[in-house]
Write a structure and sequence with these properties.
Elements: H1 2-26, E1 40-44, H2 53-64, E2 70-74, H3 76-85, H4 90-99, H5 102-105, H6 117-123, E3 128-132, E4 143-145, H7 148-157, E5 165-166, E6 175-181, E7 186-190, E8 192-193, H8 195-202, E9 207-209, E10 212-214, E11 217-221, H9 223-226, H10 230-235, E12 240-245, H11 259-269, H12 275-280, E13 284-287, H13 300-315, H14 318-328, E14 351-359, H15 363-373, E15 390-391, H16 393-405, E16 412-418, E17 423-429, E18 435-444, E19 448-458, E20 465-473, E21 477-485, E22 494-508, E23 511-532, E24 535-553, E25 566-578, E26 589-600, E27 605-606, E28 609-610, E29 612-625, E30 629-641, E31 652-653, E32 665-666, E33 675-676, E34 680-692, E35 696-708, E36 720-731, E37 734-743, E38 750-755
Parallel strand pairs: 1-2, 1-12, 2-6, 4-9, 12-13, 14-17, 31-32
Antiparallel strand pairs: 3-18, 5-8, 6-7, 6-11, 10-11, 14-15, 16-17, 18-19, 18-38, 19-20, 20-21, 21-22, 22-23, 23-24, 24-25, 25-26, 26-29, 27-28, 29-30, 30-34, 31-33, 34-35, 35-36, 36-37, 37-38
Helix pairs in contact: 2-4, 2-13, 3-8, 7-8
């Protein structure tokens, strides 16, 4: 009996000891022999991109063996602190910060890599895009940036911690952050709630980012009330406070050079609330030198420098940090038990899905998503990982992007809630847009200014469908309307009509020959329009009505071309593939497009003869050689078979783009203007692309072509040779460039300036 009693006493002592150690490890207080010590808090200030310096300071604190029992922060400090509290150590935070494309993250751009080629093209056609919900207030408005991509990034990084939590009890390290309620100008301290939402609220710089609405609160950057929340750490039980601030010297008028600098200054001058009082209760304060950098300094070089400066500042306090260990109550043998995993893999690791829940969505929208992404709930009793659904951050982003692009929801969220056998995925939507507006502009020395606007209108129907209206103003006027159906996730049957008023100049061997003004009506039915990621296949019927309005012949022209109005019907099949990593300046991937058309004037024949067969294709690949240079070979051509070729469908070369002035136009290096060539035309081009800095590009092209009216004679004629060199600066309004070229066909140089996306 005594032996049994002794055994149970030992077992109880062991269990209590194990429970105590587990509890201590959760808050990182175990290690060495120092179990009774003071609680340490790290306080991180706001400062936008300058807050990247916090990562460098955390690296040194970890190196010194300083335990972190509490962490608080504001704005960028809340992001760094929030991620640190759930398991991202300093090295993991460094990796996360450097891995992001911050120009995308701090914008509202859509990630269209997995969307249709049509949707991807729109991103590189229009400068301005916005969604409107007519009749309903947009609760996500109120800033230049809605913060969609930031919110999505936080959601992904906080996988496992996206549900409503108590930040003091449910996180590995107790955490709190600060926001400001602009309704009553009060401080809002987050000790609980949804961690991604709390972080997003804390960094909502007024005017720059839309505020977060939480109940009757409208929340913006916490720095307006408490930019350095040491007092909150004290209230949470901190006995030793280590603080980091990144604010620079006071700015002068010469520093106010742009919108972000002005917004930053407004925030900075209002961020002095409580700072002095909170510094007074700080045991070790580190002020990082961020001179030369601002709140929006998110370039790779800036992030690298800011993290390094954070390390340098902390290392300059090394002796104080080591001396602080004695005050904490630990000695040199103490080593904090770091059980936190290196968490960046949450961006790629797959989660087992037990169920999908759809909130604020129509049954049709839910069915559309389930079909497109094969979303199926885990059947009861299923235990084989190979036969159940899984999800990762990339798939979650594809789902939310599809909800905004294909289903026209203003906001979309995909969050993971831990479940017994995996995660429950909650897919939540906001209001549906009534219309999506796009606007673009360009200028070049050939056509001068052009404007183009587009409106996508989702229709309130059981089957997802939308209308698309486009208007272009300039030398070439165009009105386009399309009606697209979405019966299945992978096909988009459509009906479209286009009216064009084209005013084009035609050259011969570099000399202006004549100008044509004509109207073109075009209607197209595409019963088959197959879309899967990089690939699109279309088959359908088209009607073209050509009405010539005017022809102006130059004094030197010997042209006797007769232009006749006509109606044409064509059967068409098009295939397009594009895996390039960038639509404008790719460094890897391939682009391929091929089309076959059979042109008639009565559905069978053309001018009483066999119809015109039109075969065209182009294929380009990109090979990255080194970090900044890309080699891009391309082959292309168009072959016409038939006795009758209406002038409007003849082969045309010139310029830098396919289908710019007219649909059948093919570019050729060294030929700046539009010139007709024979019915059979094939060409090859080699382009070298050199990136300089982040946004500057030098392009060098060499091209060679053969042309003839008969395929068997195509190599009997002289080879057309050309070359050009171009410089482009990639601006937010599209590329700004200058091109200089020369060819043996024109025997004269040409020069063109252009700004904006091509349309």
């Amino acid at each position: 009996m005594k032996t049994r009693l002794f055994f149970w006493v030992l077992l109880s002592i062991f269990c209590m000891s194990a429970w105590s150690q587990t509890s201590d490890e959760k808050h990182h207080v175990s290690g060495g022999t120092n179990h009774h010590r003071k609680k340490v808090a790290v306080v991180l200030s706001g400062g936008g991109a300058k807050g990247m310096a916090h990562i460098g300071v955390l690296k040194v604190l970890e190196k010194a063996g300083i335990p972190v029992d509490i962490i608080t922060g504001t704005s960028m400090g809340s992001i760094i602190g929030g991620l640190y509290s759930i398991g991202y150590n300093a090295n993991a935070l460094d990796s996360v910060a450097r891995a992001q494309d911050w120009s995308y993250v701090i914008s509202d751009k859509e990630d269209l890599r997995n969307q249709s080629l049509k949707d991807r093209l729109k991103q590189y056609t229009y400068v301005f895009t916005t969604g409107l919900t007519i009749g309903k207030r947009d609760m996500n408005a109120g800033g230049l940036i809605k913060g969609k991509n930031l919110a999505e990034l936080f959601q992904q990084l906080c996988t496992g911690y996206t549900d409503s939590l108590d930040f003091s009890k449910d996180l590995p390290i107790p955490f709190a952050c600060v926001a400001t309620d602009i309704i009553d100008n009060s401080e809002v301290d987050f000790h609980s709630g949804r961690l991604p939402q709390a972080m997003r609220s804390s960094m909502s710089i007024p005017g720059a980012f839309s505020p977060i609405r939480l109940g009757d609160k409208v929340l913006v950057d916490g720095g307006l009330k408490n930019n350095y929340p040491a007092d909150i750490a004290k209230e949470m039980g901190a006995e030793i406070i280590i603080g980091v601030t990144v604010q620079g010297a006071p700015k002068v008028s010469e520093d106010m050079g742009g919108t972000m600098s002005i917004i930053s200054q407004i925030v900075d001058v209002n961020c002095k609330n409580k700072v002095e009082d909170n510094l007074a209760i700080t045991d070790l304060h580190m002020q990082v030198n961020t001179k030369g950098y601002g709140s929006a300094s998110f370039s790779a070089s800036a992030i690298d420098t800011l993290i390094r400066r954070g390390e340098e500042e902390a290392m300059s306090h090394w002796d104080e940090i080591i001396a602080l260990k004695q005050r904490i109550g630990i000695d040199e043998t103490f080593r904090p038990t770091i059980l936190r995993p290196l968490r960046p893999q949450v961006m790629t690791e797959k989660q087992r899905v037990t169920a999908y829940t759809f909130e604020n969505m129509t049954p049709q929208a839910e069915l559309f998503l389930r079909q497109k992404f094969h979303l199926h709930n885990l059947e009861s009793g299923t235990r084989n990982m190979e036969h159940c659904d899984s999800i990762d951050a990339e798939l979650a982003q594809q789902i939310t992007t599809c909800m905004r692009i294909d289903l026209f929801y203003q906001t979309a969220e995909c969050r993971f809630v831990p479940d017994v056998d995996g995660v429950r995925v909650i897919v939540s939507a906001g209001n549906r847009r009534t219309v999506q507006l796009h606007a673009g502009m360009r200028y070049d020395t050939e056509e001068h200014a052009s404007l183009q606007a587009s409106a996508e209108i989702p229709l309130n129907t059981a089957m997802p469908m939308n209308a698309d209206l486009t208007l272009r103003l300039g030398k070439r006027i165009m009105v386009h309307g399309a009606w697209t159906f979405h019966p299945l996730s992978f096909t988009r049957p459509s009906v479209s009509y286009t009216f064009s008023r084209n005013d084009v100049d035609v050259y011969i061997d570099g000399d202006h020959d004549y100008s044509i003004l004509y109207h073109q009506h075009q209607a197209e039915v595409l019963p088959f329009n197959f879309d899967v990621r990089h690939f699109n296949l279309q088959m359908g019927l088209r009607w073209d009505c050509i009405r010539y309005r005017d022809k102006l012949i130059s004094d030197k022209s010997n042209n006797e071309l007769i232009l006749e109005n006509g109606n044409y019907f064509s059967y068409r099949a098009r295939a397009e593939y594009n895996s390039e990593d960038n639509w404008l300046f790719p460094t890897r991937g391939a682009r391929f497009k091929a089309e076959y058309a059979y042109l008639t004037d009565n559905f069978l024949r053309l001018n009483g003869q066999t119809g015109l067969s039109d075969v065209s294709a182009n294929w380009r690949m990109s090979f990255k050689l080194g970090k900044r240079f890309t080699l891009q070979p391309m082959v292309y051509g168009r072959l016409l078979f038939g006795d009758v070729v209406p002038p409007i469908f003849g082969n045309v070369i010139g310029g830098n783009w396919f289908s710019h002035y007219v649909e059948q136009q093919m570019p050729f290096a060294g030929v700046g203007n539009m010139e007709y060539v024979g019915k059979q035309f094939v060409a090859a081009q080699l382009q070298g692309q050199q990136r300089i800095g982040n946004n500057h590009y030098i392009l060098i092209r060499f091209a060679a072509a053969q042309q003839s009216d008969k395929l068997k004679d195509i190599f009997d004629n002289r080879t057309i040779l050309g070359g050009q060199i171009a410089y482009y600066y990639n601006t937010i309004f599209g590329p700004l460039g200058a091109t200089f070229g020369y060819s043996n066909r024109t025997k004269k140089p040409y020069f063109i300036l252009d700004l904006g996306y091509e349309f």
